[in-house]
Specification:
With 337 residues, the chain is mainly beta. The protein contains two helices and 24 strands. Helix content is 3%, strand content 58%. The longest helix is centred in the last third of the chain and has 6 residues.
């Protein structure tokens, strides 16, 4: 599909009135110097039930590779009138937290004030938006019920991230900014992203394996993958590939395989339960689902050319994002918010 401007892609899709709607902007990064990672979300939800008021939220998770017991999540909710945005360029604000095309700042405290996060970051990326769906009309039609794209899929972040008073200075660290919106979350899914590979600093991988509801039945697993490796891009997101790509996941582990005429990729993502943080998502219709999230997973990706010729390997230790979202909780990962 033809790219539009990143600014257009990031514009808020909510019209300020519509019911049964949610929208999410998230940013995530990995800092190799401090061996930490962060995840920030700016969100809004307009419940289907008209007796419930729309609201907006700020979320954050801190991950410490060396001391996973220090990982924590925080969230603050505000009335929707604390959400403001500009109509002619991408810039939005939730309370005092701002998000623009290349910068963001804000802060969150837990209700008991035990934990706090603050951020003041600049970020940018080369290249156009990455569209997870292969056809432009899929971003305007009713199906799928959640739309997703990444204006900054291979970003670099600089600035400060302050964790319980500890200031972490980020200098050109790998990360991502993504935008989602729609009327209903998927039934369950695994998602992952990495742009901190040892063998190729410009390599990027992103994957999604989701089930959705099709009326009263569950869909097959729908799988989308993308790889940029050693200077070339490979897409595995055509509609047939949604079914033909291979993927199997459970909490903390994901195996996948995809191929096209140029390349076959075989990969594994793994982490430990203590490296994950559990958070609660809410559909506009008030149904709950739970996200088991980590930004410090490890990934191994093998690439093969025609005839099975090895083309190289990409690996990243404790610098890959992975989330496993389900309509049930897992006792190995306590829900923090």
């Amino acid at each position: 599909m033809q790219p539009s401007s990143k600014d257009q892609d990031n514009m808020l899709r909510w019209d300020g009135k519509r019911r049964g709607w949610y929208e999410v902007y998230f940013l995530k990064w990995n800092d190799p110097r401090s061996n930490t990672a962060g995840w920030i979300r700016y969100t809004m939800t307009s419940p289907t039930n008209k007796s419930k008021q729309p609201y907006c939220e700020l979320w954050g998770i801190f991950f410490d590779v060396d001391n996973p017991a220090d990982n924590f999540a925080v969230k603050q909710r505000f009335p929707v009138d604390r959400l403001t945005w500009e109509k002619d360029r991408f810039s939005l604000r939730i309370d005092q937290a701002q998000l623009g095309m290349n910068a963001c700042h804000g802060s969150i405290k837990s209700k008991d004030e035990k934990h706090s996060l603050a951020w003041d970051l600049k970020f940018d990326s080369a290249g156009p938006t990455f569209y997870h769906f292969p056809h432009a009309r899929m971003y305007t039609m009713k199906f799928p019920k959640t739309k997703v794209l990444s204006p900054h899929q291979n970003a670099r972040f600089s600035g400060t991230f302050t964790v319980d008073g500890r200031k972490i200075t980020l200098e050109d660290v790998p990360g991502q900014q993504e935008h989602l919106w729609g009327t209903k979350h998927g039934l369950r899914w695994a998602w992952g992203h990495c742009n901190a590979f040892k063998e190729d600093p410009q390599a990027v991988w992103e994957g999604l394996d989701a089930q959705i509801k099709l009326g009263p039945i569950k869909s097959p697993h729908l799988k989308v993958f993308y790889v940029r490796a050693f200077g070339r891009e490979y897409l595995f997101n055509s509609i047939p590939k949604w079914l033909l790509n291979k993927s199997s996941w459970e909490l903390c582990h994901w195996d996948f395989e995809a191929h096209n005429d140029q390349i076959r990729i075989v990969g594994q993502v793994s982490c430990r339960p203590e490296e994950m943080v559990g958070v609660t998502y809410t559909d506009p219709d008030s149904e709950l689902l739970w996200c088991n999230n980590t930004k410090v997973a490890s990934i191994k990706l093998k690439l093969y050319g025609p005839g099975g010729t090895p083309m190289g390997e990409l690996t990243s230790k404790n610098a890959a994002a992975a989330e496993y979202v389900d309509r049930k909780t897992y006792p190995q990962v306590p829900i923090q918010i």
